[in-house]
Automatic annotation (TrEMBL):
Domain of life: Bacteria
Family the entry assigns: Belongs to the DNA glycosylase MPG family.
Pfam families: Pur_DNA_glyco
Upper taxonomic lineage: Bacteria, Bacillati, Actinomycetota, Actinomycetes, Kitasatosporales
Transmembrane segments: none
Keywords, sorted A to Z: DNA damage, DNA repair, Glycosidase, Hydrolase
InterPro entries documented for this protein: Formyl_transferase-like_C_sf, MPG, MPG_sf
Protein name: Putative 3-methyladenine DNA glycosylase
Enzyme Commission numbers on file: 3.2.2.-
UniProt organism field: Streptomyces ardesiacus
GO-annotated molecular function: hydrolase activity, acting on glycosyl bonds
Length: 213
């Protein structure tokens, strides 16, 4: 019998730790997205760590900008960015305030509100694909830049919270290179996922984008 997941919100102290401690510890935690159409809950199965100005793959590698400002703020807040002119992706800010680091939420299992997620992910062939990849995850949950800076640790009724869930045992956690990261940042094995979970996205190495002539 599988025990019911803990629905207690994660405290800010959980996120106020080194990024490589927080990232694998997020696996199995529950993300709850409250929308006007109803709530959706997702169990995290895949994440990637980005270590700010120490990490060539991070948005904060070259310092603070209007785009990455939230990454320098208090831990436990949501950082949302827009990519490829089409998709939103969601991160959780970690570490002490003033030092930018964040965990990209790459994939998860929809455990509540699948009916609502399906209306946003019409191309998904089955429920395992609803949040299989960071852009799909954000789309299924209805995440956009309006959520950028949201406090995910509060006990109040907010658009998004992270709950304790059921942490994944260490022997079920795998890690490897981050997906699609180029250059020096591409060698870091900072992608973490739940072994053999069907909602985890496939690894893809970086492919340079062709410039239009």
């Amino acid at each position: 019998m599988i025990a019911s997941p803990d629905r207690t919100p994660l405290p800010r102290e959980f996120f106020d730790r080194p990024i490589l401690e927080v990232a694998p510890d997020l696996l199995g935690r529950i993300l709850v997205r409250n929308t006007p159409d109803g709530p959706i809950a997702l169990r995290l199965t895949e994440v990637e760590a980005y270590d700010g100005q120490n990490d060539p793959g991070s948005h904060a590698y070259r310092g603070r900008t209007p785009r990455n400002e939230v990454m320098f703020g208090p831990p436990g807040h949501v950082y949302v960015y827009f990519t490829y002119g089409m998709w939103f992706c969601m991160n959780l800010v970690c570490g002490p305030e003033g030092r930018a680091s964040a965990v990209l939420l790459r994939a998860g299992e929809i455990i509540e509100g699948a009916e609502l997620a399906r209306t946003r992910r019409l191309s998904a062939r089955n429920d395992k694909e609803l949040a299989k990849g960071p852009a799909r995850l954000a789309t299924a949950l209805g995440v956009d830049r309006a959520l950028n800076g949201t406090d995910a640790c509060t006990t109040e009724d907010t658009p998004l919270r992270v709950l304790t869930g059921t942490p994944v045992p260490g022997d079920q956690v795998r890690n490897g290179p981050r997906t699609g990261v180029a250059g020096e940042g591409g060698v870091h094995p900072w992608r973490y996922w739940v072994a053999n979970d069907p909602t985890v996205s496939p690894y893809r190495a970086h492919v340079p984008r062709k410039r239009r002539s």
